[in-house]
Amino acid sequence: MPTVEELFCSVDDFCQVFEHQWQSQLIGHDLQVRQRKRSLCLSEIMTILIGFHQSYYRNFKSYYLERVQTQWQSHFPKLVSYNRFIEWVPDTLVPLCAYLGSCFGACTGISFMDSTCLKVCHNRRISQHKVFKDVAARGKTSVDWFFGLKLHLVINDQGELLNFQVTPGNVDDRKPVPDLLQHLFGKVFADKGYISKKMFEELMASVGVQVITKLKRNMKQRLMSLSDRLLLRKRAVVETVIDQLKNISQIEHSRHRSPVNCFVNIICGLIAYCHQPKKPGIAMDKNLLCSA
């Protein structure tokens, strides 16, 4: 993982360009309104938030009190209390989303797509849960029912993030596909949950993207090239990325007290993964040699 200095330099370079453009596009930015200057700038707040997902802490409060206020005091000399810092977190959602877009990888023509559930509470507490009452929904995975959100991901063959979308838990996996693949090209490999002949034809006609999945048992067999069969076996790489996002970047937990803070947590986890120097990928040369 990059050091705190390297992370701050990357975030600050982005904020110097983005912050001015963002403020100029806000409604009523020409009006004379009071804008009290904070002791921490936007890039410092974002750096601290992203740094949590690069650490081994499981609780942000412990991370802030033990790591930031103790070990990083020299890097952030104007630190505020934990409660004050939490009040600033919602204001970073838009800049973090924009910064994540700048961290996306480049499409190579070979992509992998999958979705995963993000539980916001235990199933026994669904009837009592109020924080995500109008945001989350009940959904079903191959294992069990859950209450929460769904994270839809597209990665390239090097494990780099290409696009993502967060939806309620009851949204069909196929619904966000046109938006996810809008700026991609080549072939996208996915599981059986994405099978839709009409959607495949529309994507090929409008975007030029070919979605390849395995066939269900009751479907008619079709010819598939050897290279596509080999790449379809490598689809597990996107599941490895999801596993790292949940267990290393910690994008899922049930302690959220605000939907906005939950989205900030997810975005920061994705950014931390993008900064990860070694990502799970596949050896394309070996696949091409075997297919030849």
What do these coordinates show?
The two termini are 37 Å apart. The chain has helices at residues 4-25, 42-53, 60-71, 82-88, 93-102, 177-180, 197-206, 226-233, 236-247, 259-274, 284-291, and strands spanning 110-119, 137-140, 145-156, 161-168, 186-189, 209-212. Helix 1 (4-25) packs across helix 2, helix 2 packs across helix 10 and helix 8 runs antiparallel to helix 11 (284-291). It has 292 residues and is an alpha/beta fold. The longest helix is centred in the N-terminal third of the chain and has 22 residues, at 4-25.
In short:
It is built from 11 helices and 6 strands.
Give the SSE map.
Layout: H1 4-25, H2 42-53, H3 60-71, H4 82-88, H5 93-102, E1 110-119, E2 137-140, E3 145-156, E4 161-168, H6 177-180, E5 186-189, H7 197-206, E6 209-212, H8 226-233, H9 236-247, H10 259-274, H11 284-291
Parallel strand pairs: 1-5, 5-6
Antiparallel strand pairs: 1-3, 2-3, 3-4
Helix pairs in contact: 1-2, 2-10, 5-10, 8-11
Shape: globular
The biggest beta sheet reads: 6 strands, mixed
* SSE arrangement, N to C: HHHHHEEEEHEHEHHHH
Q: Please identify the structural class as seen in this structure.
A: alpha/beta
- How much helical structure, as a percent, in the residues? 40-55%
Strand content: 5-15%
Strand tally is 6
Question: What is the CA-based Rg, rounded?
Answer: 21 Å
